Amino acid sequence: MSAVPIISVANFHKAYEGVPAVEEVSFDVFSGRIIGVVGPNGAGKTTTMRSLAGIIPPTAGSLSVAGFDVESQPIPVKQRLAYVPDDPSLFPNLTVSDHLAFTAAAYKVDNADRKAAVLLKQFELDQKRDTAAKDLSRGMRQKLAICCAYLYDPVALLFDEPLTGLDPMGIRTLKRTIVERAAAGAAVLISSHLLAMVEDVCSRILMLDHGQQKFFGTVGEFRQKFGSADDDVSLEQIFFAATDQSGIRTHQEVAVSGAR
Prior knowledge:
Blueprint: E1 7-16, E2 19-29, E3 34-38, H1 45-52, E4 60-65, E5 68-69, H2 74-80, E6 81-84, H3 96-107, H4 112-122, H5 138-151, E7 156-160, H6 168-183, E8 187-191, H7 195-201, E9 204-209, E10 212-218, H8 219-226, H9 235-242, H10 251-259
Parallel strand pairs: 3-8, 3-9, 6-7, 7-8
Antiparallel strand pairs: 1-2, 1-4, 4-5, 9-10
Helix pairs in contact: 3-5, 4-5, 9-10
């Protein structure tokens, strides 16, 4: 593993009209790691993702991808990063094949036809090559966005609620391919309310709450801090304990709550 992080966020702060949405968030994601970004609605997860992707500027702090600053070096950042939001914006009148061809041209992808064919088969879109995006189901549009993201082999992958609309086979394929991409050297951030997804594929957790960073570390450390190292207690139960307004509950209280 490289000693230099692929994704680096330092003292990130984002405010809207003086109202902070995210405050003093700092973390690094190294090659081969999959980080789960968790937190309740309004925690700042999507704001952090969108700022990393260069969609919204930070109010303060620094964000970089593969050593390039997101604000001052946006082109090399975008060449190395893919962002899949929870509701991808596709070109409604372009077909599935058109989207992949456009992506291949924009990112100068070698062997694009072969790579596209493999991705379309993986995500069960090979029979929809000539279908316009506007005629695809919600889940198929999500799969197409993932295929476009994978096509140019980015070193940084950002997924914001990636399971939205996916069928069980699509969920299995996405989980498997995320692990494969990380094994090949990519750094991955996944924001999801489905903590079973985080538990399945992520080795580390970034927890945000009300715009503040509450935790960043391994899944084991997360369990020890907010619940128990006991694998019988689900990550979901521990998350509820960690975000409980009345304070952190004991392992026994978490277990009892989950049994109800």
